[in-house]
Amino acid sequence: MIRIKNLSVKLSGFSLHDVDLAVEKGEFFTLLGPTGAGKTVVLESVIGLIPVEKGRIYINSKEVTSLPPEKRDIGIVYQDYALFPHLTVYKNITYGLRYHQINGKEPGKNLSFIIDRLALVPLLERSVINLSGGEKQRVALARALAVEPSVLLLDEPLSALDPNFREDTREILKRLHIETGITILMVTHDFTEAHFLAQRTAVINNGRIEQIGSIFEVFHRPATPFVAGFVGMKNIFPAIFNGNKAQIGKLAIKTNSHVNGSKKYIAIRPEDIHVSIEKQSLPERNSIKGAVSKILNHGFYCDLCIETCDIKFTAIIPSNSLVTMNLAEEKSVYISFDPADVHVL
Amino acid sequence: MKAKFRISNFQFQRSVNGYKILYMIAKKHIDPFIWLAVSSSIIIIAFILFPLIEMVAQPSFADLMDTIKDKDVISSIWLSLYTSGTAALISFIFGTPFAYLLARKNFLGKKIIESIIDLPIMIPHPVVGIAILSIAGQNHWLGQIMSSIGIRIMGSVTGIIVVLTFVGLPFYVNTVKAGFEAIPSRLENVSRSLGASITSTFFRVTFPLAWRSMVVGLIMCTARAVSEFGAVVIVAYHPMIAPVMIYERFTAYGLKYSQPVAVWLIIVCLCLFLLLRIFSVQKKHST
């Protein structure tokens, strides 16, 4: 269990403001955010590498705020693996065991289990220098788990891997979490990874937590415009609300929610916007005429920018629809979307 | 035929004007900068090696053998090695933790500290000698304390070691600092997260990865110390280190008498450094 209470950190050029997080025992929790958001600073404060200005950190209900890293009972796996290059695979894995021999208790009794689970048996006597990225990551995982830490911290563990290794390692992480039941805090900028691995997540930006919740909640009900953008809602507009109507400039958009005063934005997923040449006669839907201003082809699908009343909507359509609808820039089209798909922030 | 025509064409162009030559070179896809770089390299290497080779080649074998039988020569070369080696050892003991601090920590005034470390490189050598003497003399309180406990700087082996440490230290600290900086601090973070204290982390991770740079630092420091003349000659003309003896023989008897001593000093130093280098590279292969 990790509990971070009102953590503030000041570094030259960056600071964390009142970060409040709780990772439950046995949970797989991700801290999501773009580069420079402060994810690694949170991680390094939990490890104990950064002086904390304000706030407290607890691991398994024990306060560790002022303890050195070696007293915190934390495992860490870095993106660049950080294996000891002068030691063999086996010596890397068993590096920390000597510090965990407590009066007669057999240390590393799960060592063979971990080595077996991570398929490291054939590699044990090899030098770590010539291993592949995936192998290195498995050694780093085994080294961290060998000392049976209370919590495991993962710093973008999949980012440096080739795409095919990445999927393998993702599977391994998921399986290990289920089998060992260890508490995991993973830092990543990739929402797909979080989706696959984690139960709950926190989104961080500019040193502040924007939203904490289950993956489903954050994905479907983003709390702030930043989170909405981060989970792929490309249409975010400031709006003035009037009943269940949202006014963006000259455009009035129907929503399903009756809005109170605190909301300021609407957000729509690009895949929820339907594009057609003819006006569709579905009165309950929002239907707007616009002109195609840009087409970005990604292969299987493309991003379509549609401009209307000085507002740019982005829609995603399958690439073959470009041909069937005979779409080109400046062609006029109709876009329509369900009021239920208009998220109010 | 075509090739012949090209050559004559080339000569013609050269006689017309220099720009055309460059144009021709460019046409053959050899950039003129490559010519400049290659010829400069040859000039520099020749400039360094030619005088050294001539100096080593000029003394006769008989002269060299006579010189090495000379007790004064042997003792001066030994004194040079002994004092330089001691200076390197002192640099190792005090310089290693200092270099680690500089490589790992950021603190206010770090840039100033780094410039202070480089001062002995900038200061003219005789000035170093004079600076050391100005705190070691009877007129200074430190000199008085030292003389009261029996430490003498002027004209002593201790004095030579002090001077050589002064000039050699920056070379050790800078080399080892670069060595520490090349080790990712994440390795140390991981080690500590696995339960190792700062001290065990240093001995189990940092030192095994940095000791080769320490060997290089020791070589650099010793090499710098062996070559010191100006500062030593002010602090201690006697006992005589090899460079002082070479200077004395040159001024008293001329070039022919100083050369063999210089050759022996070079041979001994090269052998030592070579041995250290081989030793450190072999270890690298076995790990």
Explain this structure to me?
- With 345 residues, chain A is an alpha+beta fold.
- Chain A folds into two domains: 2-225, P-loop containing nucleotide triphosphate hydrolases (Rossmann fold); 233-344, RNA polymerase II/Efflux pump adaptor protein, barrel-sandwich hybrid domain (OB fold (Dihydrolipoamide Acetyltransferase, E2P), Beta Barrel).
- Chain A has nine helices and 21 strands.
- Chain A has a six-stranded mixed sheet with strand order 6-7-8-3-9-10, with helices on both faces.
- Chain B has two domains: 2-57, no CATH class; 70-286, MetI-like fold.
- Chain B has 287 residues and is mostly helical.
- Chain B is built from 14 helices and no strands.
- The longest helix of chain B is centred in the first third of the chain and has 34 residues, at 71-104.
- Chain B is globular.
- In chain B, helix 1 packs antiparallel against helix 2 (18-27), helix 11 packs antiparallel against helix 14 and helix 13 runs antiparallel to helix 14 (255-286).
- Classes of the chains: A alpha+beta (345), B mainly alpha (287).
Comma- or semicolon-separated keywords:
heterodimer, A: about 350 residues, alpha+beta, Rossmann fold, OB fold (Dihydrolipoamide Acetyltransferase, E2P), 2 domains, six-stranded mixed beta sheet, five-stranded antiparallel beta sheet, about 35% strand, elongated, B: about 290 residues, mainly alpha, MetI-like fold, disordered N terminus
